[in-house]
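Request from the bench team (R.T.):
"We need a structural guess for the complex before ordering more adenosine-5'-triphosphate. Sequence and SMILES attached. Just send the tokens back."

Command: build protein-adenosine-5'-triphosphate structure.
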Amino acid sequence: MLSVRNLQSAYGASQVLFDVGLEIGEGEVVTLLGRNGMGKTTTVRSLMGLLSPKAGEISFDGRPLKGNTPEAIARCGIGLVPEGRQVFPTLTVRENLVATAANRLGRASPWTLERVYGLFPRLQERAGQSARTLSGGEQQMLAVGRALMTNPKLLILDEATEGLAPVIRAEIWRCLEALKAQGQSILLIDKNIAVLKRLADRHYIIEKGRTVWSGSSAELAAQAEMVHRYVGV
Ligand SMILES: Nc1ncnc2c1ncn2[C@@H]1O[C@H](COP(=O)(O)OP(=O)(O)OP(=O)(O)O)[C@@H](O)[C@H]1O
Ligand SMILES: [Mg+2]
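Reply to R.T.: structure attached below.
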């Protein structure tokens, strides 16, 4: 479904991605691992058209994405939960969820407010509250709910559990497990390797802007030393 080859990106004169490659198939849960500053968020920004790549190919459902605007890329069916909980602070929970809602791909059973509230009952309890007054964990749930309301074919989560209390984190994992069971394709960036080994099908490791390893969860589990070297856990 998503194929990235030899992706290169820079911020001005400073090149950050040198050779990133990854593939995500329909219904797969795939992770992008690597230490801080290795280029994970830059890869996501390049995919979403928020940063324009210097070189490489990105295709989604067989169509080239490179050169499209972020809006056009989102319309192709990619939903992003960006790093750092970017909800609309002055809108209510309900308004955040409906603001960008769409079913452009004509899904038979699209995400609705009711379904999102079913997944995250806390959001329903706080439907009329402005997003800036939510706790960090609730804002993260809202960011996930908002991405789901765009009915994406591919959901990308960049550090969705960063800085959350363990119980809230567990709630996000539970939600991702439910999404996976429903066949949702997901690209996950996170530092909780133990959970990722259980949840994801395949993994990619990036080091200084290059994909240096890819493999299944079983292969990752067998490579503790390599994981320690590249991911630092
Ligand atoms: N807007 C920017 N301008 C210049 N350099 C940047 C910018 N954003 C990121 N970088 C640099 O690009 C490199 C890769 O950053 P990136 O955010 O992609 O890393 P990351 O793998 O997501 O790290 P983390 O795990 O900390 O989120 C870092 O060296 C960072 O300092
Ligand atoms: Mg990052």
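Two things stood out. The pocket of adenosine-5'-triphosphate (ligand 1) is lined by residues 11, 14, 16, 34, 36-42, 83 (CB under 6 Å). The first strand starts at residue 2 and ends at 11.
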